[in-house]
Amino acid sequence: MVQIVREELAVFAKGIEAVLKEHGFDPEMTPVVYVGGGAGVMKRFGSVTGRHIMHIEDVKANALGYEYLAHQQLKRKQL
Questions:
Q1: How far apart are alpha carbons 76 and 61 in whole angstroms?
Q2: Whole-model pTM?
Q3: What pLDDT digit, counting tens, does each position of 29-63 carry?
Q4: 49: closest CA among 61, 37, 32?
Q5: Secondary structure of 25-74 in the HEC alphabet?
Q6: What is the mean pLDDT of residues 10-32?
Q7: What percent of the chain has pLDDT over 90?
Q8: Whose CA is closest to 37, among 12, 3, 4?
Q9: Which of 46, 43, 73, 48 is nearest to 58 (CA)?
Q10: 49: containing domain
Q11: Count of CB atoms situated within 10 Å of the CB of 17
Q12: Count of structural domains within the chain
């Protein structure tokens, strides 16, 4: 069972990388930042590595980013 999950995560990661390449992202030139829970998957199962690939594995990172944006919007409305 664990082997099946690992294989499917590798297939998922390969698919993500293929979509990025399809849309013109060159990992040798374009910085790519994976954020949140998916970052852990990409770090462990992705095949593209290099100095332009970053992984922020904090599962709350997306929520914290949206919270920050919401606070910025509220500040703007109060001005």
A1: 23
A2: 0.77
A3: 889 999 988 999 999 999 988 889 999 999 999 89
A4: 32
A5: CCCCCCCEEEECHHHHHHHHHCCCCCCCEEEECCCCHHHHHHHHHHHHHH
A6: 92
A7: 76
A8: 12
A9: 43
A10: 2-78
A11: 19
A12: 1
